[in-house]
Amino acid sequence: MHIRTDDLTGPEIHGLLEEHMQHMHQLSPAESVHALDLDALRQPDITFWTIWSEDAALMGCGALKSHGDGHAEIKSMRTAEAHRGKGVGQAMLDHILVEARKRSYTRLSLETGSVPGFEPALRLYTRFGFTQCGPFADYAEDPYSVFMTIAL
């Protein structure tokens, strides 16, 4: 697997992000979907990465959004359906944690879903040491959201 910074212009990433958005809307009501669209992911406070197989297949993606004051958020973690169970999410999360530490962030947080379809994500984040917390940044309490954080 190879991880690279992505400019969000390729058709492969457009397809993966569309798959991501559709899946989020299948699992949660619209007002509880916090996935970012392409324009939002292109903002200067966000770095976006894609992960590719040796044969140049897009396997997944993830992003890091700075909130200032040493706090950052994981956004748009997604593994392509065809590559589930291959360690893509773990590799991307490893990469994001290393990058967050390089940038001297002191806390990394995330929002994910609370319904059964999000259980694999919750297990992954818990395995890496994330713990549940309250809403952060502009989030509000939501029965469809789980907020997690880790001190770096």
Notes on the protein architecture:
This protein has 152 residues and is an alpha+beta fold. The chain has one domain (2-151): Gcn5-related N-acetyltransferase (GNAT) (Aminopeptidase, 3-Layer(aba) Sandwich). It contains 4 helices and 7 strands; from the N terminus they run βααβββαβαββ. The chain has a 7-stranded mixed β-sheet, with helices on both faces. The longest helix has 17 residues, at 11-27. The mean pLDDT is 96.
Mean residue pLDDT: 96
Q: What's the CATH topology label?
A: Aminopeptidase
Report the sheet-strand fraction. Answer: 25-35%
Oligomeric form of this entry?
single chain
Tags for this model:
152 residues, alpha+beta, Aminopeptidase, seven-stranded mixed beta sheet, 4 helices, 30% helix, globular
